[in-house]
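Hi R.,

Here's the chain you asked about this morning:
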Amino acid sequence: MEDNRKTVIIQEILYWKQNKMLPEHYCDYLLTLYTEGNRIEEEELPKQKEKQKHYISSAIFLLFIPITVGFLYFTELSFILQMAISLIFLIISAAGIYYYQVKGLGNDIPVTVAAFIVLLFSVKAVLEYFPEQIIFLYIILAINCIIWFWVGRKFKLIYFSISSYIGFLMIVLLVFMSFR
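And the predicted structure, written out as tokens:
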């Protein structure tokens, strides 16, 4: 039998057992039958559901990045509306960081999504207000790299620290190439 169907059946039997819909010894028999004699802990299956919810919410968070890019660079919405939508996504990402941290889940994805949204948000703002002055773009990119470095240290996310070093290196290269 497929693992997915078997898991659903086992969850139903555990539900019956928990809510006393069948006598306990019937449920134990059915659990033994469907788990092929393997002992199953009743706490295991809710953890599997928790992991599935975690993967789904992580996928939703990851969708914020292309949606934000689409709103900022491929629509003709007003600048204020673009910034408001980006700010809403940033607030949702911040709430996700808090929620993941409280639940003890890995908060890598919401932190990364928030960093990308801040980067996109700040670059779009600089290009809108200072289109001819490239130095402001370099400054805002350097500030983003500093934030990434700080986040990498605070949350112990090595890829944020590495990204900040690579970002600084790219900024330095761009500055030297632009002054040639």
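The longest helix spans residues 44-73.

Let me know if you need anything else.
M.
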